[in-house]
């Protein structure tokens, strides 16, 4: 009973979720609310959606570049923990609009951290990305020195550095979660990925699944991989959301910062994923396109640290299930 009470009290905390109206953020919020926490969503809705905003959370429309507003929200609401997901995330676009990406992702993160100075914020969880590692053969562990290849990846790496640097100065612990490729939708049927512009393979397949003549693009087929197409580690968004809850509990209880890979430790090539899709949807037309700037050949996670540190096991680590979950959500979006 005592243990239960202690756990409940952790999640009675006031948690600020930047980017909480986005794809992954909305799943994190859904789970935080299930865990009885008081949640404040801070989002400018640039790629977020009103439809994804949890009714039990308090929504504040705002931009992380606005230091004054952030400071006010954190102070007025006695925020203890921040989960920082707000960012621009399109790799291709980041190569073209570097300043825009720097200002939003790096400048925005610095602002958010500055707003924590002298406040009740004790924990910051940051959405980083496997892209900071660059191109790696074999499973990559958290010890690997970052080698970002795209500008987007560079902004994530810089943001990590800011968080680490200020953690001692401003007296907070951090959780840097390096997500691999996120896909699928919540079992609740209420939330999933809406934004189409990010160029995510599984989202694109889900969109195509709703068409009479599905067409799928493969960007590059002469990479140095098992079949020439890019290899990625896909994680179900519901599992990823749960990692946030478990990581937050762990950091609060142990008062120790964490850096964790968030994937399943298995790499699938684009061709392999499309072959699975072809079993679900017939008459798929596959088109080969030029490589996309900033894409690396392969990346998949070593997740020993994730399993060991959090004592956590995935529930949805089945690629068929992930694909079907994304397709089910896409159908729902059409209703
Ligand atoms: N989707 C993936 O596969 C993946 C992989 C690795 C890392 N990530 C990281 O996860 C986080 C969430 O990504 P997502 O897939 O949910 O994308 P998303 O676009 O759905 O979510 C981003 C959210 O941030 C908001 N936002 C952006 N700039 C903002 C600003 N200046 N002020 C306030 N709000 C702002 C957007 O409106 C949106 O709601 C990002 O930080 C991304 O870099 C995602």
Protein model, in words:
The protein is of the alpha/beta class. The protein folds into 2 domains: 2-183 and 234-263, NAD(P)-binding Rossmann-like Domain (Rossmann fold, 3-Layer(aba) Sandwich), CATH 3.40.50.720; 201-231 and 266-304 and 318-334, Alpha-Beta Complex (UDP-galactose 4-epimerase, domain 1). 40% of the residues lie in helices and 17% in strands. It contains 11 helices and 13 strands. A 7-stranded parallel beta sheet has the order 3-2-1-4-5-6-11, with helices on both faces. Helix 2 (23-34) links the parallel strand 1 (14-18) and strand 2. Helix 2 packs across helix 8 (237-254). The longest helix is centred in the middle third of the chain and has 19 residues, at 151-169. The N and C termini lie far apart (44 Å). Mean pLDDT is 94; it is low at 1-9. The structure holds nicotinamide-adenine-dinucleotide (NAD). Residues 18-19, 21-25, 43-48, 63-65, 85-89, 104, 108, 127, 129, 179, 181-182, 195 line the site of nicotinamide-adenine-dinucleotide.
List its salient traits.
335 residues; alpha/beta; Rossmann fold; UDP-galactose 4-epimerase, domain 1; 2 domains; 7-stranded parallel β-sheet; two-stranded parallel ribbon; 11 helices; 13 strands; 17% strand; globular; disordered N terminus; binds nicotinamide-adenine-dinucleotide
């Amino acid at each position: 009973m005592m243990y239960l009470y202690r756990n409940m009290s952790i999640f009675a905390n006031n948690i600020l979720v930047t980017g909480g109206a986005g794809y992954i953020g909305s799943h994190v919020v859904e789970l935080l609310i299930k865990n009885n926490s008081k949640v404040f969503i801070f989002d400018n809705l640039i790629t977020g959606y009103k439809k994804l905003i949890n009714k039990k959370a308090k929504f504040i429309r705002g931009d992380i570049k606005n230091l004054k507003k952030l400071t006010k929200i954190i102070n007025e609401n006695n925020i203890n923990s921040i989960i920082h997901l707000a960012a621009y995330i399109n790799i291709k676009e980041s190569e073209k609009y570097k300043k825009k990406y720097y200002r939003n992702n790096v400048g925005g993160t610095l602002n958010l951290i500055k707003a924590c100075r002298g406040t009740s914020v004790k924990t910051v969880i940051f959405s980083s990305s496997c892209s900071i590692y660059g191109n790696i053969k074999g499973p990559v562990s958290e010890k690997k020195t970052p080698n970002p290849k795209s500008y987007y990846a560079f902004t994530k790496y810089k943001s990590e550095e800011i968080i680490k640097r200020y953690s001692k100065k401003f007296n907070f612990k951090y959780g840097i979660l390096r997500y691999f490729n996120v896909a699928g939708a919540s079992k609740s049927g209420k939330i999933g990925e809406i934004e189409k512009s990010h160029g995510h393979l599984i989202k694109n397949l889900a969109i195509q699944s709703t068409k009479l003549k599905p067409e799928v693009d493969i960007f590059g087929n002469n990479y140095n991989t098992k079949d020439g197409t890019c290899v990625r580690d896909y994680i179900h968004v519901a599992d990823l959301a749960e990692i946030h809850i478990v990581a937050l509990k762990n950091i609060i209880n142990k008062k120790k910062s964490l850096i964790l890979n968030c994937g399943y430790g298995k790499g699938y090539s684009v061709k392999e994923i499309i072959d699975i899709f072809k079993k679900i949807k017939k008459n798929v037309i596959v088109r080969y396109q030029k490589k996309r700037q900033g894409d690396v050949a392969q990346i998949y996670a070593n997740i020993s640290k994730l399993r060991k540190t959090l004592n956590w096991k995935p529930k949805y680590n089945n690629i068929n299930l992930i694909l079907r979950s994304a397709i089910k959500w896409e159908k729902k979006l059409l209703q």
